[in-house]
Structure prediction request, 372 residues.
Amino acid sequence: MLTSSELALYDAAVDALASPLDYAEADAWRAAVNRAVRSLFRADMATFILPIAGSRVLFSDEMDTDRLQEYPEIREDLDAKLELPERELELEVFNRLMLWDGLLHELYRSAYYNDFVVPLRGFDPLSMTTRTPEGLQASLILHHDRPHGERFGRRGLLIMRLLLPAFRAGIRNRQAFESIRAEAARLVDMMRDAVILLDRRGGVVHRNPSASRLIDADPDGRLLVHESIRAAAALGEARSSAGLDPRALSPLERVFRTRIAGYRARACHSPGVFGTAIHALVTLERIDRDPAIAADDIRARFGLTRAESRVAMLLAERRSTAEIARLLVISPHTARHHTSRVLDKLGIRRRAEVGGVLAMKRQPSPVGEEVP
Prediction:
């Protein structure tokens, strides 16, 4: 029934429909589903109807967004008079003739058809619908934008019915994710630590008030979020390469600096209470001074200038030349020059050795010997 190219498009549509947890936001998932299903059916427009708090009920990339939100109100009288939602849920997969069987005269003379469907060019509808866990209705509707020409037909109905199980599973999983996310946010907001929750794609699902205050207080706040995402990604890589149960991995740390402060990001696998939708929990901590490698101390110990000591501390964090230049607002040439001077004064040849040398504690001086 399907050609090899259509089979690939069908697989992509099933994958998109059944994988809502791959997307941090509902609209990102709905956009991916619309694109995949529209490509499979060669439809001109796709509309995803899903009641979610804080998001639009109707989502489409092709139709006028504001006008589309009028759909529930403009069809309200017809729904009540003809019990259309009940008919849709009973049919599950249907076209216009199936839904309006014996009632097409009601459709064609209605304000819904003449003032909404025709101006939006929503011709030849092909739909599937299901109930959400809350008992609401979720639907996916395809249209051609021409009153005549190519039609979805019986073949389209058969393919849409094949997609229905994936659609049902996706709706159930998405609604479960929303519940988990709300509970996770509530728990995290009670923590005094600055915490960011991330999904499997590295998207920020939630950050608690402490994290927001910490990020907003730093002019380079975006860097704090970026480093948190990097820490979570590194945790995922470690888990994959080791083939371990995520709970067996120790938290992964990243130490970094902005222009005004130093920070530590600690990424760990999210606790089971958050479910599988939350991939990583990252805590952020401001560490303005580390006694082992404080700037004043390393200037005195190694004879560095103030600028060289700042570069040395960034080298200890394994920063690249480009990152050093950006963080200290200097040219890459100046960053390389300071790096060369730091290596000379520390008596080493490789940048990777800087952290180890700076972290070495000063040995106590023998009694009676002056400390240089």
Q: What stands out?
A: The domain at 292-359 is CATH 1.10.10.10 (Arc Repressor Mutant, subunit A). The chain has 17 helices and ten strands. The longest strand covers residues 123-131. The chain has a mean pLDDT of 84.
